[in-house]
Amino acid sequence: MASATEHDVLIIGGGPAGLSAGIFTGRADLRTLIVNDGDPILRRNAHLENYPGFPAGVNSRLLLDMMADHAERAGCERREARIVSLESTDDGFAAETASGEVFTASAVIAATKNTVDFLEGIDGVEIIERGKSFVETDDRGRTGVPGLYAAGRLALQPYQTIIVAGHGASVGRAVIEDSDVAFYHDWIAPEGYFTGRDREIPPGCEEIGPEERKRRERESLDVMREFFAEPHPDDPIQHPSVREE
Length: 245
Ligand SMILES: Cc1cc2nc3c(=O)[nH]c(=O)nc-3n(C[C@H](O)[C@H](O)[C@H](O)COP(=O)(O)OP(=O)(O)OC[C@H]3O[C@@H](n4cnc5c(N)ncnc54)[C@H](O)[C@@H]3O)c2cc1C
Prior knowledge:
The protein folds into 2 domains: 7-178, 3-Layer(bba) Sandwich (FAD/NAD(P)-binding domain), CATH 3.50.50; 187-227. The protein has 4 helices and 11 strands. The chain has helices spanning 16-27, 60-73, 161-178, 210-227, and strands at residues 7-12, 32-36, 77-80, 83-88, 93-97, 102-110, 127-130, 132-135, 148-150, 187-190, 205-208. The strands form 3 sheets. Strands 1, 2, 3, 4, 5, 6 and 9 form a 7-stranded mixed beta sheet that branches. Strands 7-8 form a two-stranded antiparallel sheet. The chain binds flavin-adenine dinucleotide. Flavin-adenine dinucleotide binds at residues 12-18, 35-42, 44-45, 48, 50, 82-83, 111-113, 115, 118, 152-153, 159-162, 164. Flavin-adenine dinucleotide binds next to helix 1, strand 2 and helix 3.
């Protein structure tokens, strides 16, 4: 990817779609910045009961905290700021925040649910108005403007957390595939899985032996114990039009 920009990938919006996209681009060593302003809509959920892997459900605010931590461990930088405008540049894009800071990146993933005002300065983005605003894309999130992608609910995905998270991952992979990073799959395989068949380990994949696998499993257990040690302190956010007594 062009190195004249500060970042390879700028993700605008830090809900499940944006964070999942970042987990993939960050792990592919693309310099990824996630800029989020405000609360992901999932913070309004009372108890999330249809996200695979949590048979008795999970506190949605805890899941968001875990996704944010995951994106950071994958190498993403995260910032709290509102993007107010986006412009095309010779090397990609420049995004300006409400306080006047500018972030540059070769590729941008918009994952802002129904916020599209910052896209006004970009020619060729098709905005769909259906009571709320959405962005027209192909099935991998490409908007038609080279380097600009949309993910999650903004890209008209069904309004379900697992679906927008999966779409974010798919869009993150599209960004990798469209870049010049050598890539096959993001896979961790047991030692010998490729090399035992005289195959090179494909780019993006890793082989690990039993000791390293056990070390990683222990680390994952420690991390999850810490996340699940206590109930999450935050209550769901009520709909703004509901009057609280
Ligand atoms: C009450 C309620 C309960 C729900 N319960 C469930 C459920 O049980 N199961 C289920 O599957 N789904 C549920 N959902 C739906 C689920 O929350 C959404 O599908 C999902 O969170 C959408 O994710 P997203 O990443 O596309 O958008 P979001 O999570 O909304 O992320 C968008 C982010 O972008 C930020 N942003 C917007 N504009 C800008 C800007 N200009 N600059 C920077 N940041 C910006 C927003 O503040 C937000 O943080 C529920 C939704 C609601 C409202």
